TrEMBL record:
Main location: cytoplasm
Subcellular localization(s) per the UniProt record: Cytoplasm
Name of this chain's protein: GTPase HflX
CDD domains hit by this protein: HflX
Cofactors required: Mg(2+)
Annotated HAMAP family: GTPase_HflX (MF_00900)
Gene (name only): hflX
Assembly notes: Monomer. Associates with the 50S ribosomal subunit.
Amino-acid positions noted as binding GTP in the UniProt annotation, renumbered to this chain: 210-217, 235-239, 257-260, 324-327, 351-353
Length: 424
């Protein structure tokens, strides 16, 4: 979003509460989250917000005509320039509403893409956001194409007055996507090399994951003494950061802080950020940070688990949950949360802000990482070079001898590494 000379863009936030929607969210917290998302964009002033109850979505204008008129009057009186609609808006609905309301419209995906694009700092981050935005634009072109009508989108999307123009736009997008994919592959490769180098350092990797604003960066900073931006703002962190830390037990680990998750994370973003998100697949331990003081903490945890599962994280990576922000709870609620956490082996009630509960959590992190190792002899045929390379990457090879048909290797590894090798 561009900065306006005459101050912030005046914005209005709408959460359509569609009764027929299967994955309907509680409207109150959903609207609150949408407003937080809007606030996460710079140079934007959220003038007002509201839930719009809808029996069903209208194809042409999303809302019923009475509501559209009513909102038109309000938006005009408030001099609104941008309306954020927390949900999917079809290109046709968008064009129609922009015309009657004389405002610019951004839907949830468009808004999240704008935030990501504002946050991207590294080359990889910038490329990933560009790819996600283009893939999104492309789907809007395809849909508009069936209507052969002019349309505009939130990120200054291309408009095309007819089939040929749209076909041309689509081709241009495809070409741009191919270019980006190639550039990204190069960046990822460099990073993979760094990662391989890091793997040689025998420190296990602990990945912090969680819903946006759960307190990952606050915890990261507290444990590492780093100064990653931690703010009461959605998607404060975009680019992954890694730091070595010595735990109280003396054990050294590498802690990684990364982008937070959100419900209905645009698929284009998940696809584009796969490389970044997949770092958690490589982790030796996943630390799921939850804002236990949030009214939707349960739903948020479920969203995070779904995204982790979609990325391919399975039970082979040990997981711990940090129920964060206990300092925000009333004494009674806090005692209850602490009792509940104490009963579960992998759950710890903590406050990243005050430091409460962190010692117990870190002891368990150390504990979980000291997997017993065993020695074993393996035979790897020449044809399985990839498996042999993996063993070296993991740093588990203690001896190697070349034979007629392959290599005989002595390894010293954990049960988890063994299982992963077998699955290769
Ligand atoms: N009261 C309280 N506030 C906390 C605690 N941990 C984090 N916060 C606050 O919660 C907000 C979000 O914290 P971050 O550390 O930026 O959250 P994050 O998970 O990194 O968020 P993203 O980077 O957006 O995914 C900040 O205002 C923090 O100060 C805590 O234990 N107690
Ligand atoms: Mg963060």
């Amino acid at each position: 979003m561009e900065a306006h000379d005459r101050g912030a863009t005046r914005a209005w936030v709408l959460h359509p509460d569609i009764k027929t929607e299967k994955s309907r969210r509680a409207p109150g917290p959903a609207l609150e989250e949408a407003v937080s998302l809007a606030r996460a964009l710079p140079d934007l002033e959220v003038v007002g917000s509201e839930v719009v109850p809808l029996p069903k979505a209208h194809p042409g204008q999303l809302f019923g005509s009475g509501k559209v008129e009513e909102l038109a009057a309000r938006l005009k009186a408030e001099e609104i320039e941008l309306v954020l609609i927390d949900g999917p808006v079809t290109p046709v609905q968008q064009r129609n509403l922009e015309k009657v309301w004389k405002v610019k419209i951004l839907d949830r995906t468009g808004l999240i893409l704008e935030i990501f694009s504002d946050r991207a700092r590294t080359r990889e981050g910038v490329l990933q956001v560009e790819m996600a935005a283009l893939s999104y634009q492309r789907t809007r072109l395809v849909r508009a194409w069936t209507h052969l009508e002019r349309q505009r989108g939130g990120l200054g999307f291309v408009g095309g007055p007819g089939e040929t123009q749209i076909e041309a736009d689509r081709r241009a997008i495809d070409e741009a996507l191919t270019r980006l994919r190639r550039q990204l592959a190069k960046v990822v490769k460099t990073r993979d090399l760094h990662r391989a180098a890091r793997k040689k350092v025998p420190f296990p990797i602990v990945a912090l994951v969680g819903y946006t604003n759960a307190g990952k960066s606050t915890l990261f900073n507290r444990l590492t003494g780093a100064e990653v931006m931690a703010k009461d703002m959605l998607f404060a962190t975009l680019d992954p950061t890694m730091r070595a830390v010595t735990l109280p037990s003396g054990r050294e680990v590498i802690l990684s802080d990364t982008v937070g998750f959100i419900s209905d994370l645009p698929t284009q973003l998940v696809a584009a950020f796969r490389a970044t998100l997949e770092e958690v697949l490589d982790a030796d331990l996943i630390l799921h940070v939850r804002d236990i003081s949030h009214e939707e903490t349960q739903e948020q945890a479920q969203d995070v688990e779904e995204i982790l599962a979609a990325l391919g994280v399975d039970d082979s990576t040990p997981q711990l949950e940090a129920w964060n922000k206990i300092d925000r709870l009333e004494p009674e609620a806090r005692a209850q949360v602490e009792t509940l956490a104490a009963r579960r082996a992998n759950v710890f009630a903590v406050s990243a802000l005050t430091g409460d509960g962190l010692d117990a959590l870190l002891d368990e992190v150390s504990e979980k990482l000291t997997d017993p190792r065993t020695a074993e002899t393996l035979f790897v045929p020449f044809a399985q070079g990839r498996r042999r390379a993996w063993l070296f990457e993991q740093g588990v090879v203690t001896e190697e001898e070349q034979q007629d048909e392959g290599f005989r290797l002595q390894v010293f590894w954990t049960a988890r590494q063994r299982a992963r090798y077998m699955a290769l």
